[in-house]
Structures are given as structure tokens and as C-alpha cells.
Specification:
Rossmann fold, two-stranded antiparallel sheet, 5-stranded parallel beta sheet, Four Helix Bundle (Hemerythrin (Met), subunit A)
């Protein structure tokens, strides 16, 4: 495992990327407002497509979600969707700290060192992380609030993480979280089980702490 100093450097790089993105946001808002005033739906979709890809990459998944809503919107509802996207972008400039509660991640892993590392990375990227060491702890965590993402270890001690995820999701009413598996699995049938369980993606162990965040957010941005 990398040292805590390495993780700290990674967190600093994340903040640098976020600063770069915030500095570019006023220009993107101006582009959207010009296209909106001109009634140029094609240009609005083009700008939204760009923001859809860059938002989560730079640590702002709420931008990706709002931009996707614009890009996928029918012409007759695209205007209010653009205003919503502009509102999200303005929030980034006005109060970056508010984004720290934008997404909640339920991290389920029986390895305490992995939990410490992943929580450190995601905390510094603005996520709220709820930890669980077992399927029972994960189920208990749902009594508070359904998370936006479940990050589930496949080899969960004596438990099967794929089965645990399926049981967890059966207990959820309404919109289901995104499901990402953490695994050292290498066999095709194992991947098939994870995909059949509705996985938005898989992060392989061992992973590089410096690239974990970008991979995690890239998986969140993929349509599923």
C-alpha cells in the first residue's frame, strides 16, 4: 500500500483539478447563456455533451448528471434543463463546500486498510462515505439514507459480495444506487455474475491510489 503522504499528494492534485475546472466555469455559463438566447438547441447539446464528460472527471459528478439531462432532453423541455445546469455550475463558483454532500457512497469492504484508503480518497474529493465491514453493517446503514453509490467488495470475508449486493438492493424501494464492485477476481464467470447483478463497473484490486478517483468517477459517468 502507498504511504499516507502519497494519498495526500493525490488529494492535492484533485483539489488542483477542481480549481482549474471552477476557473473555467464562468466561460461555460456564458456559452450556455449565448446559445440559450439564440435558441440554438444544437449548440446547447454540444456544450452539454462536453460538460457531461468533464464534470465527473474533474470531481463534479453533479455537473455530469445535469449536463446529461440537457443532452438527452427533448427539444420542448431543454430550456428548463439548461437553466438547471447553469444553476449547478453557479453553485460550484459560489460555494464549493456545498458539493461535499452531493453524493453519498456506501463502502462495503472487510479490509479496514482498504476502507481507510478509499475513504481518504473519496472524502478529499467531496463525497460523503459511509463504511461497512459486512453485509449486515451495509443493511443497517440503509436505515439512515439510501446512498447514491454502493462500492462493494466481492470477497467480503466469508460472505459473497455479489449475493450481498443483490440482497441489499432488494431491500431498497425506489431508485437504486449505482453499484461498483471492488475485486481481485480474474475469471470470466466471476465478471459475468457481477455484470448480471447490475454493476456499473468494476475496480480491480490491487489498484493504484493515484488513479482510483478518476476511475471511480469515470464509471459513475457511464450510462447504465
Amino acid at each position: 500500500m502507498r504511504s499516507s503522504a502519497c494519498c495526500a499528494r493525490g488529494a492535492e492534485r484533485v483539489e488542483e483539478l477542481k480549481t482549474i475546472y471552477r476557473n473555467a466555469v464562468p466561460g461555460r455559463i456564458a456559452e450556455l447563456e449565448r446559445a440559450l438566447a439564440a435558441g440554438d438547441v444544437t449548440e446547447l447539446r454540444s456544450i452539454a455533451h462536453s460538460l457531461r464528460g468533464s464534470g465527473a472527471t474533474y470531481g463534479f459528478p453533479t455537473v455530469t448528471t445535469a449536463a446529461a439531462a440537457v443532452e438527452d432532453a427533448p427539444d420542448d423541455v431543454i430550456t428548463p434543463r439548461v437553466h438547471e445546469l447553469i444553476g449547478v455550475l453557479r453553485e460550484i463558483i459560489a460555494s464549493p463546500a456545498e458539493l461535499s454532500v452531493a453524493m453519498r457512497v456506501l463502502l462495503v469492504d472487510d479490509d479496514p486498510e482498504i476502507r481507510v484508503l478509499v475513504k481518504h480518497i473519496l472524502d478529499h474529493a467531496g463525497y460523503v462515505v459511509i463504511e461497512a465491514a459486512s453485509a449486515a453493517e451495509a443493511a443497517a446503514a440503509l436505515t439512515d439514507r439510501v446512498p447514491d453509490v454502493v462500492l462493494m467488495d466481492v470477497m467480503l470475508g466469508a460472505e459473497d459480495g455479489v449475493d450481498a449486493a443483490a440482497a441489499l438492493f432488494r431491500s431498497i424501494a425506489g431508485t437504486l444506487p449505482r453499484l461498483i464492485f471492488l475485486t481481485g477476481a480474474v475469471r470470466a464467470e466471476q465478471f459475468e455474475r457481477m455484470n448480471a447483478a447490475g454493476a456499473a463497473g468494476i475496480i480491480h484490486k490491487p489498484f493504484d491510489p493515484d488513479s482510483f478517483l478518476s476511475l471511480f468517477e469515470r464509471l459513475l459517468s457511464i450510462e447504465h
